Amino acid sequence: QVQVVESGGGLVQPGGSLRLSCVVSVDFSQVRVLALGWHRQGPGEERERVAIIANDNSTHYSDSVKGRFTISRDNAKRMIYLQMNMVKPEDTAVYYCQAIIRNLGVYWGQGTQVTVSS
User: Fold this and answer.
1) What is the pLDDT of residues 58-82, one digit of tens each?
2) What is the DSSP-derived secondary structure letter of residue 25?
3) What is the pLDDT of residue 44?
4) Is 91 helix (H, G, I), strand (E, B) or coil?
5) Does the pLDDT of residue 1 top 90, yes or no?
6) Contact at 8 Å (CB) between 85 and 69?
7) SS3 content of the chain, % helix, strand, coil (to 5)
8) Nearest 10 degrees: CA dihedral of 75, 71, 97, 39?
9) What is the pLDDT of residues 5-42, one digit of tens each?
10) What is the pLDDT of residue 27?
């Protein structure tokens, strides 16, 4: 069973920065990780994709975070990161980490709350 665990959420002021981390329980050298990503769900909203990073390290961002957020990965540590800069109140949401692994499936973490408020 693959486990995905996020950390790093919290309260941050508008314009501030926060880094989210996610660890995946599977050894990346033993499986084909197709993509890793961050999604979020704000109050009363549907879950939306924020950023993804593919196996070739190509990245894609939603328009709402482009230029402010950066996704990265460390295969040796089985980690995915989301660096959030210049955060806005509308970035307030539960952030979920996702791992898509070939022949195994799609896995989600339990989520970590990010609140942007002064």
Assistant:
1) 999 999 999 999 999 999 999 999 9
2) S
3) 92
4) helix
5) no
6) yes
7) 5, 55, 45
8) -160
9) 999 999 999 999 999 999 999 888 888 888 999 999 99
10) 87
Question: What per-residue confidence (pLDDT) applies to 62?
Answer: 98
Please give the full DSSP string across 18-69, using - where no structure is assigned: EEEEEEESS-TTTS-EEEEEEEEE-TTS--EEEEEEETT--EEE-TTTTTTE
Q: Which two tokens stand for residue 86?
A: 């210049």
User: Under 8 Å CB-to-CB from 16, ≥6 apart: which residues?
Assistant: 87, 116
Q: Which two tokens stand for residue 87?
A: 């955060």
pLDDT at 15: 98
Answer whether 18's CB lies under 8 Å from 10's CB: yes
Token pair for 94: 């539960």
Q: Which residue has the tokens 């990965």?
A: 73
**Paired residues of 61 in beta bridges:** 51
Residue 112 tokens read as 């970590």
Specify the length of the chain in residues. 118
Report the 10 Å Cβ neighbour count for 32.
11
Match 């961050």 to its residue by tokens.
38
The pLDDT score that the predictor gives to residue 84 is 98
